[in-house]
Automatic annotation (TrEMBL):
It comes from Sparus aurata (Gilthead sea bream). Its main location: cytoplasm. This is [histone H3]-lysine(4) N-trimethyltransferase. The lineage of its organism: Eukaryota, Metazoa, Chordata, Craniata, Vertebrata. Residues 1-236 form the SET domain. GO terms for biological process: heart contraction; methylation.
């Protein structure tokens, strides 16, 4: 084994290398123990292997799940049958959350699996931390809502569901250890559990990155790793300054990060760049604007949970533009809070098919991203990818090829040179010649 579990200083369990890994080298791969395709991607991706293709065929019973072929459908049936009959019975009222769907599959998988699976070479699912003792009332309430939904949608189809105490622990384990599977543009494809990947501890300066090949997680080195070095992944978006990252990690994963980046705060000054004004803002004004930015980000996050309609989308764009105008009085365009709102505005423009608007936001974002994020960041690669495809769509061929080549340079390290996403982007570049 190229990696082994060990007791990490101050962190309990962890994973360390037993040999040297060069940048871009595959450290290990882990098939999903259990997974579920997000509802929004049905029809675009195979429910079983997550392959993206246009000629999928649908399940004859529910007519909502799509597959590459009969083999994929047969392979997925033990899990899909949980939902197939229920979707027909409930019709439009079928609406369990993605977490509830994943937990239902986990329960079924655990019932039919007696041996250690290939996903659990190093860590068993039942050994996951749940941190139940650290959960606040809001998280506990969310847990109880999920348990009620599981009973409502699945009790007829899963006999003898575990008791509420066991379910509370299982949902807490999934919330702390689950993964989001994303495509090359970081669009959400589904949720999954990868026990061996969950064994890695967090760092805000990670030496590996996790990408996905279908429903398999691949862990690649993004820094040189020597024998005996601990292998660190990042649990969160690394764009934000130290205080924000620490808050997020404490809230979601119940620990205070002590990594070198959090100790040195080396990138905080650049991330919090203030606009050059004849009369510099007072520290209190800056603090007040940071608080405003955080509130807007949270408001936007909650708004995005609602079902989008075209009127609502216009409201979101207006909200982005107003907040950018207000924050821009103090923050420079490279400030991470400005970049966050520009990214949201770009997403709204893409949804509205305002390609010029999306391009202008993307052009402002991509360079600061390259500074703020670590090397070989998926966020930077996906931004170059989006921009490159926008340029080509707007017949800016030279700009498009240049941006796509920058995306490929990162993706070859993060995804591996043989990944189908890399091949697709290279094909897009070739087609322009």
């Amino acid at each position: 084994m190229p990696e082994e579990p060990f007791l990490s200083p101050d962190k309990n369990r962890g994973l360390r290398a037993v040999r040297h890994f060069a940048v871009g080298e595959l450290v290990f791969a882990c098939p999903a123990y259990s997974y579920v395709l997000t509802v929004n991607e049905r029809g675009a991706h195979c429910e079983n292997c997550f392959t993206r293709r246009e000629d999928l065929f649908k399940c004859g019973k529910c007519k909502q799940a799509y597959y590459c072929n009969v083999d994929c459908q047969r392979s997925d049936w033990p899990m899909h049958k949980l939902e197939c009959v229920a979707m027909v019975a409930y019709g439009e009222n079928w609406c369990p959350s993605e977490t509830v769907r994943l937990v239902a599959r986990l329960i079924m998988k655990q019932r039919v699996t007696t041996d250690r699976t290939p996903s659990e070479r190093l860590l068993l699912l039942k050994e996951f931390e749940s941190h139940l003792d650290k959960m606040d009332s809001e998280k506990d309430e969310m847990n109880q809502t999920d348990i009620a939904a599981l009973h409502h949608f699945y009790s007829r189809h899963i006999s003898d569901l575990p008791d509420d105490q066991a379910l509370t622990e299982l949902f807490a384990q999934v919330n702390c250890n689950g993964f989001t599977i994303e495509d090359e543009e970081l669009s959400h494809l589904g949720s999954a559990v990868f026990p061996d990947v969950a064994l890695m501890n967090h760092s805000c300066s990670p030496n590996v990155i996790v990408t996905y090949k279908g429903t398999v997680a691949e862990v690649r080195a993004v820094q040189e790793i020597n024998p005996g070095d601990e292998i660190f992944n990042s649990y969160i978006d690394l764009l934000y300054p130290t205080e924000d990252r620490k808050e997020r990690l404490l809230d979601s994963y119940f620990f205070t990060c002590q990594c070198t980046e959090c100790t040195s705060k080396s990138k905080d000054k650049e991330k919090m760049e203030i606009r050059k004004l004849s009369s510099p803002p007072e520290p209190e004004e800056i603090r007040s604007m940071v608080l405003y930015a955080k509130n807007v980000i949270e408001e936007f996050r909650r708004a995005n949970l609602l079902h989008p309609n075209i009127l609502f989308i216009y409201e979101l764009l207006e909200m982005c533009e107003l907040s950018l105008e207000k924050m821009g009085a103090i923050f420079a365009d490279t400030n991470v809070y400005m970049l966050h709102m520009m990214y949201q505005a770009m997403g709204v423009c893409l949804y509205m098919q305002d390609w010029d608007g999306a391009m202008s936001y993307g052009e402002k974002i991509v360079q600061p991203y390259s500074v703020h994020y670590p090397a070989y960041s998926l966020n930077v690669a996906s931004m170059y990818l989006k921009l490159g495809r926008l340029y080509l769509g707007l017949e800016k061929k030279t700009h498009g090829i240049r941006a796509l080549k920058k995306a490929v340079a990162i993706m070859e390290v993060a995804h591996g040179k043989d990944h189908h996403y890399v091949a697709e982007v290279k094909r897009e570049i070739e087609e322009q010649k």
